Amino acid sequence: MKVLILGAAGRAAHATVHALRFLPGLKRLYLADNNAEALCKISADLAHLPVSLRYLDAENESSLYERMLEADLVLGCLGPFHRHESRIVRAAIAAGRDYLSLCDDPAAVEEVLSQGKEAEDSGIRVLCGCGLTPGLSNLLACRAASRLDRIDSVEFSWFLELGSGMGAATLEHLLRSFAGKAPALQGGKPATARAGSWEEMVEFPSPVGRQGVSYLSHPEPATMPAALAGAKEIWFKAGVGSRGMGFALHSLAWLGEGQRTELWQTVLRTAAMGIARRGESSCLTAVRVTARGLKDGVRSCRALCVMGDYYHLSGLVMAASAASLDEEDWEPGIYTPENVLDDPSVFARLNRAGVRVLLGEEKD
Fold this sequence. Notes:
The chain is an alpha/beta fold. It contains 14 helices and 16 strands.
């Protein structure tokens, strides 16, 4: 199999490359980006792998199309995804190539899903969101809910430590996601909440511990209701860094709302990067998914949690998704993670890679 990685100079792609080295039948990796210097540095660390470097103009659909023709499978690590995702999927449809993406922007996911008929006609498979979140978070929700007889609510909680090792695309995603409206399910109906609002405290495993989280605009509440039949409430909340860092990032996000000039957005991104550089070099993260409902007639709560380095975990989930696509017979179309990855084989691959899922249970 020949694999093309878009956005190969970024942190998520670097982690994905290392996770892919165990992919059966891997013949060649094409690393595509517009940052030639960064690509050369990365390739110097990958002398043991069959790697080829490619220049990519992500704003040009023809450039995307030409790069895709060289590969059998395309992996999308090119954030922030609201800028490029729809264009990339159109190029994949035109080239007839399967595409897996880390896409974490709800508007981009909605636009990609609208191209399902075109993907089917082209005979390709597209998986939108196969990193830590969305991705593994969706699968944890399915597993937590399966432990209940009746689901009342599912709560997604995510903590990410701000640090100097954080990529610029991740910071831009956070600035966008803490502004505007966040999708949610309320009373069994689609709804929205003010992003960055309604903070509450959530207990994560040590060393993350107790952290404040507030509404974040993310795809899970929009895509998961079909898989979580009967749930009346689904929401996604997140916290970033210390309380002071989180407040500063929220403030920058709110300042960037609405129609702002590119110069103003650049100023906000630069300020956000300055905040992140004050943190540690690691990007410690934790995702907790809590399902509430009835079990044997008793009100119960099931919580599943994973923790580790944000980029490392995302890369492992992407690699497991690529292996699943290669081995399983997915029909052509566009999918979200809960549609095709909620399978014991995926958890087995992640377990072999060192991912551990922590389980918590409560009964009223």
